[in-house]
Amino acid sequence: MGIAVNLVTYLGGTLHLPSSTSANVVTDFMGTSFLLCLLGGFLADTFLGRYKTIAIFSIIQTLGTGTLALATKLPQLRPPPCHGSHTCKQANGFQMGILYIALYLIALGTGGLKSSVSGFGTDQFDEKDEKEKAQMAYFFNRFFFFISTGTLMAVTVLVYIQDEVGRSWAYGICSVSMFVAVLIFLSGTKRYRYKKSLGSPIVQIFQVIVAAINKRKMELPYNVELLYEDTPETSRIHHTDRFRFLDKAAIVGEGDLERNVGPAAGPNPWKLCPVTRVEEVKMVVALLPIWATTILFWTTYAQMMTFSVEQASTMERSVGGFQIPAGSLTVFFVAAILITLAVYDRLIMPLWKKWKGKPGFSSLQRIALGLALSTMGMASAAIAEVKRLEVARATGASATTETLPVTVFILIPQFFLVGAGEAFIYTGQLDFFITQSPKGMKTMSTGLFLTTLSLGFFVSSLLVSVVKSVTGGSNGGQGWLADNINHGRLDCFYGLLAVLGVINFALYIVSAVWFRPRKSKPAALQMETIVNGSSTAENKC
Hints:
InterPro entries: MFS_trans_sf, POT_fam, PTR2_symporter_CS. This is Major facilitator superfamily (MFS) profile domain-containing protein. By secondary structure, this protein is mainly α. It has three domains: 198 residues, MFS general substrate transporter like domains (Growth Hormone, Chain: A), CATH 1.20.1250.20; 73 residues, no CATH class; 228 residues, Growth Hormone, Chain: A, CATH 1.20.1250. 65% of the residues lie in helices and 2% in strands. The strands form two sheets. The protein has a two-stranded parallel ribbon. Helix 1 crosses helix 2, helix 8 packs antiparallel against helix 12 and helix 11 runs antiparallel to helix 14.
């Protein structure tokens, strides 16, 4: 977090990259970090197990932060300082190559850690033991406390060190911290509990799809009882009429029932899948419209870590004799999340229970609130940028290094609205994907959630590139996303995101109305859902 939240100022101020390029480097880095969580989860589920995955990828992340510290320390790995506003030399290919190696080593390490560390924590407790189940709750409370503490330290102390002491010192602190963490983690090797990997649900999904495609020319039997099923009665999912093409994976063809030998005894799962497995895949497919319409929120979120930080860097940030680092404005995210969750827990939930008889908003309602608040946040950002540009033109500011006589606190509404939206959509997405994902594919809830974050950042990069190209910025003109944001029209870009947010919200409402939620689970399964849900909440932080 300490690297991502203030990286855009380093790319623009030290490496002299254009504004849009700096934003895309950050969003590509964040998107890749979350996308590689899928790789980490696959390796942990299929080959390495969680312990080895954590050990290997934490070492990779430590190497990445160490490389980044060196890249920001050695003068040979950055261009010379600017001499006047028109003589800034951009970082060359070699310098950018070293930076990319550092960032993507960190992204790779992050992917392995995020996918496994919380799950490995749950492995240390026996869910069948009531005492240990209670201890697990304390574990997560402390776990999230330290995550929150780390986030606050990142956006305050680390960002301040980066701006006022030196980037290499701040990244060096990250490296040393990771190295110490790896040693502490390895010291418990003999005391840990280890659970056997059960295989990746991604493979199971592809098995159903491949089997259905291979049997696409076969006719479905009139009686669904003729479809293949070998799942124990207590764990079966009854056949549904949705997405009937996938049912063909359960058609028994010639030679399909020939048994494999060895540990994988049974029909070849790439040729024949039981009805329960097919229904699990159908359940995942039914989640995709909701999944797709939540991606844009994280595109909006990405702007708070890129262009909003660039905005702040040009504005008056002094409070008394202290100047707030531009990257530290993201602390308002944390404040917005804490305030929103407190108000929701202590005020909204009791009132909602009295009025509707339900203990709070449903997961779909919380997602809707998050999408609405993020759209309002982009509208607020556009208004604030109009004011900032008016001041820039009135004062004749030509360089982004000039401080404009306008307070940075006019940006607080956009940070607060998107932050409050994150509080709702984050908990809503987790709740939705955990409770609506099939029980036999529990880790899919984590994967679906993380891919919305990843794709949100990648969509941001794509949108920035398209807007820069269409509005003329790539052909020497200024365009909306000019190299110098004082010469661009960032307000129009924010306005575009607000319009896209309105359209996306309408599509979300249609998807939410179409979606048929699973029936309520028994109390015992609800507790299991809560436990498994807690283990995924770490991944985004």
